[in-house]
Amino acid sequence: MKSFSIKAKITRWFSLLILAILAAALALFMSAGSSVLRARGQRTLQELVQKNSEELTYTADRRDILYGYQYIIYGDGYLIIRDNFLDRENGVYCALFDSAGNLLYGTHVGAFPISADGTVHTLSGSDRDYYVYSQPLSGEGLDGLIMQGVVEKDANRFLLDGLFSEALLILPALALLAVGGGYILAAVMLRPIQKISQSAAAISGGEDLSRRIDIGGGNDEVHRLADSFNKMLARLETSFEEEKQFTSDISHELRTPVSVILAQSELAADNPDPKAMEVIRRQALRMKNILERMLSYSRLARLESLPARETVDISLMCRALAEEQRLKDCRGMHLHRDIQPDLLAVGDEGLIIQALVNLLDNACKYGAQDGNIWLTAGRNGRKVYIQVADDGPGIPRRQQGKVFGRFYRADTSRTGDAGGSLGLGLAVVRQIARLCGGSISLSSRPGKGCTFTLTLPAAENQ
Ligand code: ADP
């Protein structure tokens, strides 16, 4: 089957629709016009018969007939026919008959039966139809006389025929106009779609995901489509960028331990040395650490919801974390805590611990040497919040929105030690907060440190 472009289809359907409407309007006009003209013909017929009936008088006295009067001898007297008697007007023929049906006066177009019942009859002549109206006369000397009018049924049809032939001439012009109009309309309506498809082709051909579809301002369906398309491209671009960054980060992280292991194992092959074996073991551990963190993140990222939610004693958890040795060994930093008692939240205990460890580790890693870390926990309405703050260098404003993204490292020069900095810690925290039905936010002023706030739903029975 031949496939037409949408533009051709719209043009075709639009033109057909307009033509059908025009044809229907013309047919309606012709039928209504014909009824109106016929009704008018009948009215004219009745009016003329009525008028002519009033133009007749009977007299028995010959002297009543003045000079110039028209008259006919009728019975014992005379019928005077005034000049206003019109035996032919607007296609209506009028004639006077006696009671036996003999023509006395007027013009007679055919022998039609005389039926003076006050209605207009439609009668067939030799080749066409006629309206016939007969009216009995009354008054002195007039009884028995009948005035009959006859008019062709479609006497005024020529008016409509004229209009119809003009319409037939105009119709092709209108058809052309409809096709042209339909084409222009389709072209205008489809122009943004064409732009979208051209942009999409250019983007997919050039694989340039930073390009966006620009079809100007507006908020109609097509603009919304372009908008969704642009959002999809933005997400794709972010995800491709993240993947690229990920590949380069992982290669970077793994290259060093792999090189060290290769070099040390070559040395050890010629000259077995326990120190070399120790270096190999340490580097292998570092690789294991990196791979484990990646695996644990990807497992977490795949989770749509927590398998089960439990009540978690946040006060207890924070106090235990604050006691951990690694915080005490942290670059001479001092830990302050302000933990309200009996804070119960819902979530997964293991995951919440993981999130807090990540935040505390970051404060320890990025906070100021010999500086401070504040661990605060409290309740705000139906939420339990935990804050981890430091007085380190903080995070520049333009990077604050990005730090929760995967593999994002504000300071790329740091790679850390065992396992290094992968840029996954805060992404993990965000995912845990989401899974527990809470949220994570950051407030930071460069030079004044960072405050991360993890909010969790409070347990109902608190
Ligand atoms: P990682 O610590 O593995 O790099 P994170 O996702 O935990 O990954 O952190 C992302 C980035 O955010 C870090 O690279 C760091 O630059 C910045 N950042 C996180 N916490 C802090 C903090 N407390 N102070 C300053 N910068 C921070």
What is the helical fraction, as a range of percent?
40-55%
Structural class by sheet pairing and helices: alpha+beta
- End-to-end distance: 70 Å
Low-confidence stretches: 412-419
Distinct small-molecule ligands in the complex: adenosine-5'-diphosphate
Put simply, the count of helices is 9
What key phrases describe this protein's structure?
six-stranded antiparallel β-sheet, 48% helix, 3 domains, five-stranded mixed β-sheet, binds adenosine-5'-diphosphate, 462 residues, Helix Hairpins, Heat Shock Protein 90, rod-shaped, alpha+beta
Task: Please tell me about this protein's structure.
With 462 residues, the chain is of the alpha+beta class. It folds into three domains: 6-159, no CATH class; 221-302, Orthogonal Bundle (Helix Hairpins), CATH 1.10.287.130; 310-457, Heat Shock Protein 90. The protein has helices at residues 6-53, 157-206, 221-270, 274-302, 314-322, 325-328, 349-366, 397-400, 425-435, and strands spanning 56-59, 70-74, 77-81, 88-89, 92-97, 103-106, 121-124, 129-136, 146-152, 310-313, 334-339, 344-347, 372-380, 383-390, 439-444, 450-457. The strands form four sheets. Strands 4, 5, 6, 7, 8 and 9 form a six-stranded antiparallel beta sheet that branches. A hairpin with a 5-residue loop joins strand 5 and strand 6. Helix 1 packs antiparallel against helix 2. The longest helix has 50 residues, at 157-206. The radius of gyration is 52 Å and the shape is rod-shaped. It starts with 5 loop residues before the first helix and ends in a 5-residue tail after the last strand. 23% of the residues are buried. Residues 358, 362-363, 366-367, 390, 392, 395, 403, 408-411, 421-427, 450 line the site of adenosine-5'-diphosphate. Adenosine-5'-diphosphate (ADP) binds at residues 358, 362-363, 366-367, 390, 392, 395, 403, 408-411, 421-427, 450.
